[in-house]
């Protein structure tokens, strides 16, 4: 039996220094492994225990580990997980499927066709974001992979009413809005991690799918998987979101990432037995 393990990355498996959530006394804090460097500086971490568990999971012949992220290809390729490189990776919220590090052109064309048919154009959404954003809290505006747009903001200054209005405007045009840390994403509704996960499951013959994620953009992935986990922090936790096949973990921060990898390993072992 092949088990596909699709996991979100930021604030699910890997954590910036600001997101570690280390509330215990310093001498009791877990040892950390840096798994991402950006512009010469350490950026993202796992606990050493999580890294060892992930190495074992990736080496298990019954498991296909698939990093699944809203990051662009370039951002994803900064990450250096322990163990062998993943054969498949899902980037740009499902818009890019990497096979041995190379974008799959057939998948990209199929995604482009759906977006053209079902959503307002990216340029229209990007221009709207620029027009309605306040320079007092907007720090950057970006377009990712010619697929979606996002803003980097001073989160505490962004009015909740503004976010609600943006979400309503986007929904009417076939787009979804998600807040993740200091980033506000506008993503076409058909651009999903779950669709890419199904494609990898088809190619690998996986009979069972496992997933984890913390944000609104991960909800479809969690619902599509046979079993899912979400940490005790993030958009989904803040909303109290859950589902019959999704386990809401009580632990938050980098220790949640460790627990998620542990749960993946237990599930794969149980299914194999």
Q: Explain this structure to me?
A:
- With 273 residues, this protein is α/β, with parallel strands linked by helices.
- The radius of gyration is 18 Å and the shape is globular.
- The chain has helices at residues 48-59, 73-76, 105-118, 122-132, 160-171, 193-204, 219-224, 235-238, 254-272, and strands at 3-7, 32-38, 41-47, 63-67, 88-91, 96-99, 102-103, 138-144, 148-153, 175-180, 183-188, 208-212, 227-230, 246-248.
- It starts with a strand and ends with a helix.
- Helices cover 34% and strands 26% of the residues.
- A hairpin with a 3-residue loop joins strand 8 (138-144) and strand 9.
- It contains nine helices and 14 strands.
Strand order of the largest sheet: 4-1-12-13-14
Largest β-sheet summary: 5 strands, parallel
Fraction of residues in β-strands? 25-35%
Mean pLDDT: 96
> Into which percent range does the helicity of residues fall?
25-40%
Rounded radius of gyration (Å)? 18 Å
Strand/helix succession: EEEHEHEEEHHEEHEEHEHEHEH
Q: Which word captures the global form?
A: globular
What is the oligomeric state here? Answer: single chain
Total helical elements: 9
Coarse structural class: alpha/beta
Show unreliable segments.
Answer: none
The end-to-end span amounts to: 10 Å
Counted beta strands: 14
